[in-house]
Amino acid sequence: xxxxxxxxxxxxxxxxxxxxxxxxxxxxxxxxxxxxxxxxxxxxxxxxxxxxxxxxxxxxxxxxxxxxxxxxxxxxxxxxxxxxxxxxxxxxxxxxxxxxxxxxxxxxxxxxxxxxxxxxxxxxxxxxxxxxxxxxxxxxxxxxxxxxxxxxxxxxxxxxxxxxxxxxxxxxxxxxxxxxxxxxxxxxxxxxxxxxxxxxxxxxxxxxxxxxxxxxxxxxxxxxxxxxxxxxxxxxxxxxxxxxxxxxxxxxxxxxxxxxxxxxxxxxxxxxxxxxxxxxxxxxxxxxxxxxxxxxxxxxxxxx
Length: 304
What we know:
Elements: H1 7-19, H2 22-29, H3 33-47, E1 52-55, E2 58-61, H4 63-91, E3 94-99, H5 101-118, E4 123-128, H6 131-136, E5 141-144, H7 152-156, E6 159-162, E7 165-169, H8 172-175, E8 183-186, H9 191-200, E9 209-212, H10 215-223, E10 228-232, H11 237-242, E11 252-253, E12 258-262, H12 269-284, H13 292-295
Parallel strand pairs: 3-4, 3-5, 8-9, 8-10
Antiparallel strand pairs: 1-2, 5-12, 6-12, 7-10, 7-11
């Protein structure tokens, strides 16, 4: 027989220690402040040692509490992860895909019905994030075009998906003064403007600079007439068709392309299926087929 305190007291202890507040722990656990306080007293009586000390009107962990919290937190984390794995097993194979929020919202999610039609045996768990997700949160594959900040090992196993082409876009009213308009840039891919200028030999939007942490915010800023944004052509097809954004200089192919970066060197069968589907779907959706540079497929690792 295990010599453990009631699970409810451990949950109350973990929530209080994590949030630093009995009140916040009670809100999280959907209990009253008094109920959580009683569970903490019950735990301390069971242990025969105090785990908290007064801190003004609240409480904080003492030396014994900190040591016990390290154990309880690790066990709860392991329990949560194990439970998630059981649920995933029950639901069928799951592929964890990480990509930018804009690419997810404007291309991947709208296309997912086709993927599930082709591969109903694979479930996609989607995270809208970056390379950090793959290394710290367990994503199986990251979809990105700018791998300049990725470790060498990640870049070496990247799998080519499709070409990318960027162009300056703005509201029609801004196009008439595009030379002096504000330049809208992405916080994490600010080199895109440098690449575009080097490839085209043009310099536009020499006014003030605005930066945003997400591409969809750059698009919204351009739609609002704040300036000129440099956007990948797949992400703004609806705006171009509607005439709310214009691309006075068209779109220019960038080196590399859209890439899939597996978390491991070994490519699983479900990931290979997802990558091949993306290649086919992105190829069907290509809008710049008349641009010769977009028809040449770079030499990159392929899916085994």
